[in-house]
Amino acid sequence: MPRRQWIHAWLLLLPAFVFLIAFTHYPAVQTLIDSFWSTPKGRRPAAFVGAGNYTRMMADPIFAKAMWNSAVYAALTIPTSIVLSLAMALFVQARFAGVALMRMAFFTPTVLPLIAVANIWLFFYAPGFGLIDQVRMFFGLGSANYVGQPATALYAVAAVTVWKEAGFFMIFYLAALQTIPLSLKEAAAIEGCSRLTFFRRVTLPLIMPTTLFVSVNATINAFRLVDHVFVMTRGGPDNASMLMLYYIFENGFRFWDTAYAAALTVVLVAILTLVGIGQFFAADRKVHYR
């Protein structure tokens, strides 16, 4: 490549490269460094504490609770979002009257702001006059406070996330389903293959790359949620819906313990990295790109 083209190519890449370094790599490295120091307060400068923040983390009961809640939340939202989005994509892939309206209805929650979604569902969950309680009372059931009880608060937040994300993942599955050649369907029909067998033997293997992509994104989303928790429960009651990212937010911006928040962030990023790598290796033999 001539030097002039080489310089031109780097100049085109330079703005994106600068933004990537300034807003992604530098903050990540600085967060790792800050996790080994104490939080500066007033005239007291930060002091090197080594692994002190991580040692404190191991003895922190709220951290343990947030980790457990995040694991349960991920186990609830990831498979549910994937299965529901695939079912929705299979439904709207067919041609019928009003299919465009149905696709728009499924996708609409995705374009709504997260804060607006949380407030809408707060109205649904409101005890006494909320939509869910109105339905319960119609069938003679009593009132229930879903976000105000430790036994149901986390599940209530998880339901909102599934409702918000399923339509987004549906778009990817719909695109993947439309790439399956019609010749395969015609050949299967000639051979007398049932729809269930075709779905299990042909459709699922062909959309596995999309499933891997969706699962990785669903995992990241499950651990980076903070808006719904902030609006709906604030991590309560009694830390029943406390998730890792919201705990980081509380330590960093409410209690202003930025060093401990940095250590929590490092742990969260490490967990996401390991989970993401594990997903790729676990699905490697099942994903076919040809």
Summarize the structure.
With 290 residues, this protein is mainly α. The chain has helices at 3-34, 52-58, 61-93, 99-111, 114-125, 131-138, 153-177, 182-190, 195-206, 208-223, 227-232, 244-254, 258-283.
Structure description:
The protein is mostly helical and 290 residues long. The protein folds into two domains: 1-32; 62-283, MetI-like (MetI-like fold, Orthogonal Bundle). It has 13 helices and no strands. It has helices at residues 3-34, 52-58, 61-93, 99-111, 114-125, 131-138, 153-177, 182-190, 195-206, 208-223, 227-232, 244-254, 258-283. Helix 3 (61-93) packs antiparallel against helix 10, helix 7 (153-177) packs antiparallel against helix 10 and helix 10 runs antiparallel to helix 13. The longest helix is centred in the first third of the chain and has 33 residues, at 61-93. 26% of the residues are buried.
